[in-house]
Amino acid sequence: MTSDRWSTHAITVGPAGVTKRFRATDHDRCAREWRALRLLSRYAPGLAPEPLRADLAAREPTVVMSGLAGAPLRGAPLTAGQVEALAAAVAAVHGSLPPDVLASLPPRPGRPEELSGLVRSWYPRARPQAGDQVGRAMDDGMDWLSGSVPETGGPPDVPWVFGPGDGNLANYLWDGSRVQVVDFEDSGRSDRAFELAEITEHAAAWVEVPLDVPRFLRHCDLTPAESVRLPHCRRLLALVWLFLLSFDAATGAPRNPPGTAERQAGRLRDLLG
């Protein structure tokens, strides 16, 4: 899960391809991006940019890939066909790798156990600064989290998938007939319920133009175990975003419109029921 506030790279578009340059502290992110592009090129060609070359040893490592012609799905109303194509692209990424290849990958960063630890560390400093609506939602979220079962080693009865690791709709490009996918710096082994929640709870899915989440999820053929897990993942990620948006609102130059954290508080409390 990569917040827009924590950009780890700069992108340059040129005739020789798209260059993604990472910060000196983000060699691991660059390596994950390169690995994902190479794997998808082999096992799901056409779904993502083609890997052209990389310099993983540079002080600021780079990946060069082919350009894609599609327009981002973020910030515009989506037709029923686009929502269906989005779900198809997501499913294609999730199921792209053979089981033995998938099993050899490390888990993606930002798994639920990591996020649970993060929000517990954020709460003591964020809560005193929060307004009434946001603060009450933080309290409700932490109460829910304290009663949830800690996750270690992966969810039971839920199969692993290849996870892109970032649910921002700007990473899904519509070319008029299909959706292609970019941005794999947080990719790795994951599970489908968590990756779907990354999309439905990302600020990009509702701050500007809301994604039709029920329609999107109807196109995702979840197993019974995944259907049980999905609400848990959505609540956790909504809680994470509540903190991120409250931090954003407290800056001198917030990236989101006034009241976004309060809107997120309402979204979280709806998910908590």
TrEMBL record:
InterPro entries from the UniProt entry: Aminoglycoside_PTrfase, Kinase-like_dom_sf
Keywords: Transferase
Biased composition (Basic and acidic residues): 264-273
Region (Disordered): 254-273
Molecular function per GO: transferase activity
Domain Aminoglycoside phosphotransferase positions: 18-200
Taxonomic superkingdom: Bacteria
Keyword Transferase: yes
Protein name per UniProt: Phosphotransferase enzyme family protein
